[in-house]
Design brief:
By secondary structure, this protein is mostly helical. It contains three helices and two strands, in the order αααββ.
Length: about 100
């Protein structure tokens, strides 16, 4: 595996001391930071995908005129036996937002 070196990052010495005390056996500060960077990248990717799905849902609602009320969303659940959401009223609300 190829590796690259990140430039030094200034940090509060007290923070570093606390971080070093919290390392697992065999874990180094650099491996800890590398793991955090990877997790941050993954979190950012998930956030971007979530936002993209929300924008796509909004655009579809604008095109079709079909909206679901927030109360229906909060009262619904995923029907594991099918590929659709089940609403309290078991129907999609065909109304435009106020």
């Amino acid at each position: 595996m190829n590796t690259a070196t990140c430039p030094s990052i200034p940090a509060d010495p007290e923070l570093l001391t606390v971080a070093e005390r919290g390392l697992r056996d065999g874990e180094t500060p650099s491996s800890f930071v590398e793991q955090l960077i990877g997790e941050g990248i993954a979190c950012g990717r998930l956030r971007s995908e979530f936002i993209a799905r929300g924008i796509a849902a909004r655009d579809e609602a604008l095109c079709t005129g079909r909206y679901v009320s927030s109360s229906d969303v909060l009262a619904c659940g995923w029907n594991a036996g099918s590929t659709r959401w089940v609403f309290a009223s078991d129907t999609l609300a065909d109304k435009k937002p106020a």
